[in-house]
Amino acid sequence: MKKLTKTWIAVICVVAVLLLSMVGSYLVQTSFFTVKQEVTICPINELAETINNNIEAAGKDLEPATCAGSGMSQLTGQISLTTYIPKNATSETPAPAIVSAHGWNNSKEMQIQNFVELSRRGFVVVAVDLAGHGRSDASIGDDNCVLAATEYAMSLPYVDETKVGAVGHSAGDLAIGNTILKLNKEGSKKHVSAYCCSAGALSAFILGMGNKDSFFGEGTHVSEGLLIDVIAGKNEEMGDMSSWLRVAFTGFAHDLAPEEGVPFGEWHNAEGKVETPEFGQKIGTDSAIIIHEANVTHPGAVMSVEVTSMTIEFFYAAFGVPTGAKLLATGNQTWVVGVVFQLLGLLAFFASIFVFGAALLKRKRFASLVNQDAPVGDMLPSIKSWKEIVPLLLTFIPLAILAYFMYFPCFDAGAGIIQSNNITPVVSGVAWYTLASGLVLFALIGVNYLIKRLCYIKDNVQVESLLVSAKLNGGVKQFLNTVLFCVELIVLMYIPVFIGYYVFDMTFGISIYVVGLPRLRWLPEVLFKYLPMWLAFLIPNAMLNVKARFKEVPEWASTLFVALANVLPIVILTAVNYGHLAKTGLPLYTTGDPSIYTWTLFAPLVLIAPLNRYFYRKTGNIWAGAIISATILTLMATTITRHTSDFAFFF
Q: Which of 546, 554, 534, 531 is nearest to 612 (CA)?
């Protein structure tokens, strides 16, 4: 009874932390109910109809919505956006609006630094899920997502349609740039007035008021991706980062000599330097531009207090303090607290594997799974014996070396071999790499067994194969019960994720790392196409994990060793990539970038070591741990990366 009580106390604690994460995040997102949060999820053609109705009802002098037309067949894919409405924004005192667009492997919830800090300062913020991310369908396209969000913002009765800006990151920046090219046409009443781009090692903030083609017209090259490429540090021809202005904007190309640059932190227009306004005051010119050099990496831009401060200063300079709102210092930032709540939820999500798993094993249905046959204490081998340590090292070291050299060949091959209408080739590439790593690991387990037999050949000792750890005493029936246990556990874990999504409009995560919610329509493909590849890696991984235990080494230390071994290839790839970036200003890898994509799998890869070890000690075999860890890794890989499905999200 005592153990049962402790188990349920742990369950209550985990559930309490998950609820705290949801409620805390919601309070920060709404600035303690001073900002209204409205979630819109609908087909994009329905949103276009809403935009037209809003324009007519408010009597605004705007053209009809173009987001679901523009010469294309009518789009019916789903779009997801959230509008943050401060109390000062009313039809009598309309406020400026800012459209917020995230980058790849992300969602609108991870733009928390923008929608929280701008909305609590009196700006209406519309945060949108890009196509194939979050709850937006890939079929509608990134550009149409941002275009729809922008037109929707302009149509709202509590928004000043002449003061609409945009802030983006990475792919969101490119989509904003293309939206600007579509809207900021001569004679059009729809104009993006201010654009804040914070996409990496260089944070460039652009301000262009009114109908000024010198900044937001045909003179820009944003549609070709130049702007985002240069800001991300990938354009070798530009040299001094500030000199990209001369290429991106025709005014600077003519008015600045080739050897001149635009100093960081100063406002400029085509005629030269512009006086910097007082904090909170609107700049005294129709068009100007400022570039800040932020000491952040590309993914780090969405988690930077420094970049957020620059964003706040920029929109104050673009629009001034909104009517009825208070001027807040840039250092007064609460979004970090929201991130802490989201991180707490992420940690509780992972903790729930162990806590909910322990609770399920207390049920009568799964009592037969509990088997304490796993060797402990003096039953374990000694690390002092070279006959034990040498075979183990000769397994781990080649695995790390091969994993490093196999990543990109397997990634490129898998992206072309595995075809899917639902999942991006990026996921397919990594899944193929996972399968190849698993096959290598199976081979190394065989090598481990042969080497160990050679080591003990003179001792007349029976060497046990690692395959023994996969043995199930109850046969097929026990295996099916194990699978049922894993399914129930995964469902229990994702119930809080579902509540967070649909009740509080938040996710458990930090920066570009979030727990995604799978789309049920393509779940069969995920489970039958991608899960087997992860299982091929996690089953031998669990076997090797079992073997890396010694009676002189604490359980936590040997588990940590396996965890570090699992992430070692990613650590090496990331170190090499960022080392090259630090030396040259350019990343070494641009395709299948391990420093961005594999970061989303870093935590689960660390987690599988304690997870496999925990369930092995509970059940005496590797199956529960391997299936659970493989399923979580598969869901994380396929739900937090770019989808290519046109299916509706969940419902």
A: 546
pLDDT value of position 263: 63
Split the chain (651 residues) into runs of 10 and give each run's mean pLDDT.
74 96 96 95 92 94 80 68 97 96 84 95 96 82 89 97 89 81 80 75 40 37 31 35 41 42 67 85 81 70 86 91 96 95 95 95 90 72 83 80 79 82 77 88 86 84 80 85 95 94 88 76 86 92 86 89 83 76 64 58 83 91 93 83 43 30
Question: In what helix (H) or strand (E) does residue 397 lie, and over which residues does it extend?
Answer: helix 386-417
Which of 340, 591, 387, 357 lies closest to 485, judged by CA? Answer: 357
Closest CA to 64 of 77, 74, 55: 55
Q: Which tokens sit at 443? A: 């081979």
Report the sign of the C-alpha dihedral through residues 297, 300, 305, 311, in that order: positive
Q: Are 108 and 142 in contact (CB under 8 A)?
A: no
For residues 362 and 375, give the distance between their C-alpha atoms in angstroms, rounded to a whole number: 22
Contact in structure between 536 and 620 (CB atoms under 8 Å): no
At residue 573, the pLDDT reads: 76
* Largest distance between two CA atoms of the chain: 93
Helix runs in 232-329, H state only: 245-248, 250-255, 305-319
Give me the DSSP letters along 32-99.
TTTEEEEEEEEEHHHHHHHHHHHHHHHT---PPP-TT-TTSPPP--EEEEEEEEETT--SSS-EEEEE
Backbone angles phi, psi at 362, to 5 degrees: -80, -15
Task: Give the separation between CA 120 and CA 134, rounded to whole angstroms.
Answer: 24
Amino acid in position 426: V
| 493 contacts 349 by C-beta, under 8 angstroms | yes
Tell me which residue has tokens 């085509």: 270
CB 233 within 8 A of CB 202: yes
What is the predicted pLDDT for the residue at 415? Answer: 78
Three-class SS state of 488: helix
* N-to-C CA span, the chain: 42
User: E strands within 75-190?
Assistant: 78-86, 95-101, 124-128, 159-168
Contact between residue 474 and residue 481 where contact means Cβ atoms under 8 Å apart: yes
Backbone angles phi, psi at 332, to 5 degrees: -85, 85
- Vertex 152: Cα angle to 150 and 156 (nearest 5): 120
Residue type at position 542:
A
Q: How many CB atoms lie within 10 A of CB 466?
A: 21
Give the pLDDT score at 208: 42
CA distance 38 to 33: 12
Enumerate residues 6+ apart whose C-beta is below 8 A from 458.
none
For residues 573, 579, 580, 585, the Cα torsion angle rounded to the nearest 10 degrees is 130
Length of the chain, in residues = 651
Distance CA 563, CA 585 (A): 31
Sequence-ordered list of residues with C-beta below 8 angstroms from that of 138, at least 6 positions apart, any chain: 77, 131, 132, 642, 643, 644, 645, 646
Going by their DSSP bridges, the two strands 287-292 and 203-208 should be labelled as: antiparallel
